[in-house]
């Protein structure tokens, strides 16, 4: 039987807000508007390569946001609100649909290009909260102070409210209105703005993925794993393990239960199965990553505890 979580999470992304905020964070105040980045088409013959590079550098890692949200429970609702006809947003469609995020189309209705995402998002959150009594957590990905009343109302309805925003573009009052608020830069797997804006920037190819540790296994495990999975799959499994452990670390416990870790990894990547990597049990997979995690099992009947190595 599939594992069920008693906590159910709804994720709501004000996508224009987070994309523009990240761009301005990396490239300067109001630079998104100055560069006319909203409708910049990278493949166009007359496209400014400098703007193309800045857009690529400021790409949002949707996976990191959803992985963080999944650490609170099973994601049962995920919606992103934006004008998806805008070129800067359209490049995210595959990334979002691959993670089963519903794309809510909002066409600009005024000259300022404001699309009313805050109103539509707030209505949907309220409707879902009244319709789904078991929706326990609300994750709002935005930094706009307009969401303060929404966060306060969700708290009064008994929901646990988590906010995610970009540093420098987030209202301190909104952060105070949530039970928890996370800076996008602090999410596991995200390269911080300070690192991205360092003097040497050699690559702007893709959003940063979770740093993966080297995989060193015993000869027996390695041979089984080599037959079952590609190097890319093994590396991805290790990266998934590290990111899941980083997310679980927020509970202030040094040692984590293996069962809790597996549940978190399955939330982040439902396709994860240790058997596809050549392991009969999850504990075998963990032992193969002995350079990444330290295991503690005092007796055969005791649960497996583990922690990341320094």
UniProtKB/TrEMBL annotation:
Annotated PROSITE patterns: HTH_OST (PS51644)
Domain HTH OST-type: 233-310
GO molecular function (one): RNA nuclease activity
CDD domains registered for this protein in UniProt: LabA_like_C (cd10146), PIN_LabA-like_N_1 (cd11297)
Protein name as catalogued: NYN domain-containing protein
Taxonomic placement: Bacteria, Bacillati, Actinomycetota, Actinomycetes, Micrococcales
């Amino acid at each position: 039987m599939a594992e069920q979580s008693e906590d159910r999470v709804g994720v709501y992304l004000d996508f224009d807000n987070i994309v523009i905020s990240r761009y301005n964070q990396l490239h300067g105040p109001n630079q998104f508007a100055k560069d006319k980045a909203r409708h910049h088409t990278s493949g166009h013959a007359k496209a400014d390569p400098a703007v193309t590079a800045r857009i690529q550098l400021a790409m949002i890692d949707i996976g990191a946001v959803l992985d963080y949200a999944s650490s609170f429970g099973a994601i049962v609702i995920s919606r992103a609100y934006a004008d998806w006809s805008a070129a800067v947003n359209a490049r995210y469609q595959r990334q979002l649909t691959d993670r089963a995020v519903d794309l809510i189309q909002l066409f600009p209705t005024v000259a300022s290009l404001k699309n009313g995402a805050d109103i539509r998002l707030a209505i949907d959150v309220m409707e879902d909260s009244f319709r789904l009594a078991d929706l326990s957590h609300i994750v709002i990905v935005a930094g706009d102070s307009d969401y303060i009343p929404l966060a306060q109302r969700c708290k009064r309805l008994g929901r646990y409210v988590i906010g995610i925003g970009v540093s420098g573009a987030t209202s301190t009052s909104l952060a105070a209105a949530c039970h928890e608020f996370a800076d996008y830069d602090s999410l596991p797997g995200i390269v911080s703005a300070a690192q991205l804006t360092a003097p040497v920037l050699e690559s702007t190819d893709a959003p940063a993925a979770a740093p993966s540790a080297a995989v060193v296994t015993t000869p027996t495990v390695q041979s089984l794993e080599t037959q079952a999975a590609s190097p890319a799959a093994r590396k991805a499994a290790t990266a998934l393990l590290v990111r899941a452990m980083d997310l679980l670390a927020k509970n202030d416990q040094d040692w984590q239960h293996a069962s809790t870790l597996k549940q978190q990894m399955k939330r982040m990547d439902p396709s994860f199965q240790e058997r596809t990597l050549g392991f009969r049990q999850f504990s075998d997979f963990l032992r193969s990553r002995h350079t990444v995690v330290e295991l503690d099992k005092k007796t055969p009947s005791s649960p497996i505890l583990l922690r990341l190595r320094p």
